[in-house]
Amino acid sequence: MQKSKKVVILGHFGVGKTSLIRRFVSNQFSDQYKVTIGVHISKKVVDLSDEDSVSLILWDLEGTDRLEQIREAYLLGTHGVIFVFDINRPSTFQNLKRDLETVKSKVQDRPTVVIGNKKDLVPEEEISSLLEEHDIPYDYLTSAKTGETVEEAFLHLASILHHDS
């Protein structure tokens, strides 16, 4: 049985939301930066078992440094959230806990997966100390460029959404 689930992808400008979606949906990456204006919608069907699948309707929302200004209409009917920050840009995670509280208040505590993207830009030995030093709550560290852990993050949320309904 296939279920459709709306997932909004949120985060600051330039953290790689669109690149993560492109990597997940079509296994592609582009170095060309294009600003998302408003919302861009993509879809991917994820097979969870021989009998069960989830159709993820991915809403790529424009980046903003002020999450409280997200248009409420974009969030209506949201089943899950992917929140993305750039582990190479402290301004995108310095207020991460507050940002996540804002998001949760807007989507009634829907399941949320927190992704630290652009892992390929930070030396491996610096990542742990960076995350620990800033006490960053995250679920996955990804690289849209290399594809590392992208599929796992999206599949994790798909599985949660499937079992929650």
UniProtKB/TrEMBL annotation:
Transmembrane domains' residue ranges: none
Record has Nucleotide-binding as a keyword: yes
CDD domains per record: Rab (cd00154)
Record Pfam families: Ras
Entry superkingdom: Bacteria
InterPro entries: P-loop_NTPase, Small_GTP-bd, Small_GTPase
SMART domains reported in the protein's UniProt record: RAB (SM00175), RAS (SM00173), RHO (SM00174)
UniProt keyword annotations, A-Z: GTP-binding, Nucleotide-binding
Keyword GTP-binding annotated: yes
Family note: Belongs to the small GTPase superfamily. Rab family.
Record's protein name: GTP-binding protein
Organism of derivation: Muriicola marianensis
